[in-house]
Amino acid sequence: MTYRETLDWMFSQLPMYQRKGKSAFNNKLDNIKKFAAYLNHPEKKFKSIHVAGTNGKGSSSHMLASILQEAGYTVGLYTSPHLKDYRERIKINGRVISKSAVVDFVLENKSFLEKNKLSFFEMSVGLAFNHFANQKVDIAIIEVGLGGRLDSTNIITPEVSLITNIGLDHVDILGKTLGEIASEKAGIIKENVPVVISERQEELVDVFISIAENKKAKIVFAESTIKKDFKTSLLGKYQERNIKGVVATLYELRGYTIFEKHIKEGFLNVAENTGLLGRWQILQKQPTVVCDTAHNTGGLSLVFEQLQHQRFDHLHIVLGFVKDKNLDILMPLFPKGATYYFAKPNIPRGLSVDILYSKAKEFGLKGQTYNSVKKALRAARQSATPTDFIFIGGSTFTVAEVV
Q1: Sequence-ordered list of residues with C-beta below 8 angstroms from that of 214, at least 6 positions apart, any chain
Q2: Model-level pTM?
Q3: Which of 158, 169, 203, 334 has the most neighbouring CB atoms within 10 Å?
C-alpha cells in the first residue's frame, strides 16, 4: 500500500467522528485498551501531559510542546484534527511522523484493526502512542479528541492533566449543560495526578473540585494563581487565558528542568517549534486575510472579541459549518455589518450552503453562496480593498481548504 492508499483505507474503512458525526463515536474504551495490549502497552512507555477542554486545548498543547522543546527535551505531540496532512496529528519536536511509519503500522496491524473494527480515532491513538514509545520521547503532550472520560486517549496516566475551558459543544454526545460537559472533560483526572484548570468558570468550580477530591488529585485554578504575564507569538488576545494554564501545568510538572527563559522562548516560538496552523493565522496583508478554526460559541466569541481590536474599513467573512452545529446559537454572534461568502466544507458532514444561507438571512447576515470554500475566498479577495479585512472560519474543515 502507498501512503495515499493507506489514508484512503483509514478514512473510508473505519468511521471518524470529524467526518461522519455522532454515528462514529464509540462510547467505550474497550477497543483501545485491547489494541494497547496487542501493541504491548506503548502508553506505559513514555511520560505525558493530558490536555482536555472545549476551547484552547490545541493551542495549549502546542505551547507546552514548544516550551519543553526549548528546555532541550524530545517532545511528542498528539493533536486532532489535522488541517492539510494526517501526519500533522503525530509529531516529535515539530517533525511529523514519516509516511512509511504510517504505512508500515497499518500493514502490520491491519488484520487486528479489521477484525476488531477499530475506529479511525482508536487506530490513530494506537499509532501515536506506539510511535512515541518506539522513539523514546522524554515526554508527550496528548490532546483529547472528544470529551475526556471516554476518549481513546484516556488510557494514559499523565504527570499532569490540564483542562482549558468548558463550552457548549458536541452537546448531542457530551451533555446539554456546562456541568454535564465539565464532568465528561474531568474524566481525564487520575488518582493522585495534579490537574490544572485554565479558566475559572464559577458555575463549574464545584464540579471540578468534587471529582479531584474523589481522585485525591491536587487541583489548581490557573487564572486565580498565575500572576506573571508572558507573551506568545500566537496571535489573539484570547491566548492570555491559555498561557496561564500552560504555566501552571509546567509548575506542577516534576522531574524536568524548565527555566523562565525556556518558558519565554517557548511562547514566542510556538509555530516555529511545533508547526501549529489555523489559530488566528494571518494568510495575507492588504487586505488582511485571517483564518481561525474556532467553531463553537466560546471559541467564536473570543474570535469576534479579537476582531474588535483590528483596524479595517470593511469586514468580509468566508463562512462554512458542519451539520451538527446549532446555528440558532451561533448566528447571533456574527456581525451584521459584514459581507458574507457562504460555502460548504468539502466533507460528507459539511452543512449545505443553502441551509446556511437561509439561516443567516434569518439573523440579518447578508451575502452570497459559492460552491466551494476556495471560490468564496476568491470572491472575497476580489471584492475587498487593501484596507479591508477578510476572516475565514466556522469550521476546522473550512480553514483546512485555504491554509
Answers
A1: none
A2: 0.84
A3: 158
Strand 75-78 relative to strand 90-92, pairing: antiparallel
Q: Give buried/exposed letters for 169-194 (b at 16+ CB in 10 A, else e).
A: bbeebbbeebeebbbbbbbbbbeebb
403 vs 400: CA distance, rounded Å: 6
Q: At CA 52, angle to CA 46 and CA 53, rounded to 5? A: 165
Residue with cell 519536536: 93
Element at 169 (helix H, strand E): none
Dihedral of the CA atoms 190, 191, 196, 201 (nearest 10)?
80
Quick: pLDDT tens for 76-125.
999 988 888 999 999 999 999 999 999 999 999 999 999 998 988 999 99
Residue with cell 462554512: 320
Model confidence band, residue 18 (pLDDT cutoffs 50, 70, 90) = very low
What is the C-alpha separation between 160 and 43, in angstroms, rounded?
15
Position of cell 493522585? 192
Structure-block grid coordinates of residue 303: 474570535
Q: Which three cell numbers stand for residue 333?
A: 454572534
What are 289's three cell numbers?
A: 486575510
> Residue 157, class by beta-carbon neighbours within 10 Å (0-12 exposed, 13-18 middle, 19+ buried)?
middle
The Cα–Cα gap between 330 and 179 comes to 20
Any residues with CB less than 8 A from the CB of 43 and at least 6 apart, and which? 36, 129, 133, 155, 156
